[in-house]
Amino acid sequence: xxxxxxxxxxxxxxxxxxxxxxxxxxxxxxxxxxxxxxxxxxxxxxxxxxxxxxxxxxxxxxxxxxxxxxxxxxxxxxxxxxxxxxxxxxxxxxxxxxxxxxxxxxxxxxxxxxxxxxxxxxxxxxxxxxxxxxxxxxxxxxxxxxxxxxxxxxxxxxxxxxxxxxxxxxxxxxxxxxxxxxxxxxxxxxxxxxxxxxxxxxxxxxxxxxxxxxxxxxxxxxx
Length: 223
Hints:
The protein is of the alpha+beta class.
């Protein structure tokens, strides 16, 4: 990769400005495709090797499922001994409900119907996020939310990972629990002349639970 140096009387300052130009160019490409630059680690090389900004843009296009130059992508894959690059493509979650009802016989107390909920959000054909949470502690909120990335996790990690209750389950909304799960999948790419680039794309999904029937629904929130 070739970078143009800024003229300076002090070589050390030249190096600093040269790195700044490279990082700025990388960040422009990431922002173009709505990816966030989380970190640049100049002394590391653990990500897949990319030798030009054109290659970086092609890889980002793959992650965004855009039209790209197949020849450029094949060069990246061959250099890194890869068959493909994993992409973020969340699919419908599958849920398993474990009921632990705290009710008296013949009397339904929707707010106190204790349930453990387990779900799996597909990220790619071999990568997924396993989630779990509980309802029925009596305060109308989803609680103890947890999530882990599983499956094939090469060059990826679970980044931002938060859950916020959106509404309380009560008689006024037919005991509907609702919350927003925000997550991101981090990618690490090694750009020659720059270092490891840690980047991510944030996704938001709405999870609803019917407090009486236990039915769970999942909707991706499109910006």
